[in-house]
Structures are given as structure tokens and as C-alpha cells.
Amino acid sequence: MDFNSDSLPEDSDWDLKFESVRYDDSGEYFCVAFNNYTLPQTRTSLTAILSVVGPPQILEAPSSQNVIQKMSMKLVCRVEGHPIPVVSWYHNDMKLSATSRIFLRNSNQEFWVTNVNKADEGEYRCETWNKYGNRSAVATVHVAVPPVILLPIGHVIAEENSTKILNCQVYGDPHPLVFWAKDGVPLLTINSRLKVLDTGLKIINISHADEGNYTCTAVNDAGNQSTTGVLSIEAPAKTQVSHRAPKMDGPHFVKYPVDTVSQIGEPVTFSCDTDDDPKPHIYWTFNNTVSFPPTVNISKDGRKLYIKSMSWKEIGKYMCFAENLQAVRNKTAHLYLRESATTHKPEKKSRNKSLNKGGNEA
């Protein structure tokens, strides 16, 4: 700049201007003036602090993903803003907080879930706000369930020329593909005597050539599971005169689950039992799956399903299945939430347990 001229620079020539201010423009600023005509030749101004304020900005939004059951998942919601924004997470519109499986890190900008189950599936929303505004971002999580063998093949004994079904009921999400093998050799050709059903492998007009070890393998994107059983042929039984008609019907329930209404925090018990001898195989499903919330406990014999302290995750449909050689039968019950002044702490909690129609404690 030529100071020998008669004119001085306009005031605007000394200004520092920002065309579009950003959060990273925040900081300390000072100016330095210098020339060759004075001593000292430079002068430094006082420091000015620039603070950029405004609504939050989402730098990295959570991404939709597929997670295998019992694995861990991570969602990220990177934000910036001034004042520093608050971050919250929602699952299917229900606000989340830290638990034994849920971890919030880096000022809630990282959301972790361990031991993922089917109940964790759905829409996740990250919300961030400060006094100047708010932003949100959404991601969808699908939980893939590896195949589960609901009913193994076991040891099947059949008469020659009879028809039998080798059980192989499976569950998985996505629905598994089922493959069969006999004595380790894949059954690639299904003929008129062999039919693959949803419940197993049907063999018509059984002969001694059909004896052997059968393996059912269920496969989907989340994994695979197999079960192996034996088919044996026996000679036709001799006809015997009996004054007592054989029992040929399916399982007969003497206790079964019924619709139950309960409050958050209360215990719930469903019972399921039969008077058959031998006892049938008993198993349960929850909302048409074999994936249960971690708070649901089932006895080893399958005759009791117990929830120590009911929460939102246990609300739904419960089915008890009883299966013997004659048939598979089931009973269905729904667990509902009783409306109250607060869903976290019931007003009254009875010490006396009552038995409902099916013999269950509510």
C-alpha cells in the first residue's frame, strides 16, 4: 500500500469478512499491521473471539443394517453445534436409555446393543437439539435369525409298506432352505415316494431299502443347523384281541395358557401340560417365532413359561405346542398391558396369586 499518496484506504479494506460463516470458523482472531516507516515496524491488535452459534448439524447419520441374532450392533450419529447439542435415541418411537445390553458413548453419539434379539428389530431414530433448533435421522435394523430345529427327527420305527413323516420343523429369518441326506448322501432326486413337506420328509410305501440315518439341514443367510435321526423297519405287529380301545388321538391339555392382563413390573406365569402317557414334546413360540425376550424363562420340560418382571418387550402372543406320534396341538394366549396411572410403578401390587381358567398364575 502506498502511504505517499494523498488518499488513505477505505475503512472496509481493514475488515475481515466471512461470506458464509461455519462452526469451524469459531476461534481467536487478531490482526498485524506493519510498514517500513516506523519503529517498531509491526503492531498487533488485541485478540477477538468469534463464537458461531446455531442449530445442530448431523455430520454422520445412522445407517440401516442387517444384524445376526446374538451378535452386536452399532449406530452412529455424529453431530456438531453451538451450544453443544443433546443427542437422544428412539426405537419404534420409544426413547432408549442405557441398560445391561445398551451402551451410549461419545456424548450419546454412538449407540451399541449387545446380544441382539428379534425384539431389537425396527426403526431407530437419532434426535439432536439445542436452543436454536433440532435435527433427526432414521435407520432401519433387521435382525436375521439363524435356523432353529423346532422338532428333531429322533428314532422313527415304521412297518414295511407303511407311510411315515420324518419330522424336521424349522424356523429362521429369512425362512431357511431345507436339504435332506441319507447315510451322508444328499437326496438330490425327490421321487413319487419321497415328498418334502413344511414339517418334514414324507416316505410312502416304506421298504427295507429306506432304513438308515437321515439328516435334515436348514440354511439361511444367518447360519445353518442340522438334525440326524434313524429310520428302522419292523415286522407288522400281530393282531391281538383287546377289550380296551387304543388311544389314538393327539395330546390332551389339562393346563394351558390363557389371555392375561398385567402391569409393568409384575410377574407372569403361563402353564402348559397334558395328561398323556408318555408325555408329548412341549415347546413355545412368541409372536410366531422361537426368539424370546431375554427376560422370558421356560422350564426344561416346557411346562412353565415365567416372566419375573413384565416390561414392554414381553407384550404379545404366546403359543404352547404339544406333539406326539398322533398329532400336534397348540393353545394360544396373549399378554396385554393393563392401563394405569404410571406404567413403571403400579399403584397396588397384590400379594395373593390367583389361578385363571387354564391353571396359570397371573
TrEMBL record:
Name of the molecule in the record: Ig-like domain-containing protein
Domain Ig-like positions: 56-144, 146-232, 251-336
Keyword Signal tagged: yes
InterPro entries, A to Z: Ig-like_dom, Ig-like_dom_sf, Ig-like_fold, Ig_I-set, Ig_sub, Ig_sub2, Neural/epithelial_adhesion
Any one Pfam family match given in the protein's UniProt record, by short name: I-set
PANTHER family in alphabetical order: CTX-RELATED TYPE I TRANSMEMBRANE PROTEIN, DPR-INTERACTING PROTEIN ETA, ISOFORM B-RELATED
Residue span of region Disordered: 339-362
Gene source species: Octopus bimaculoides
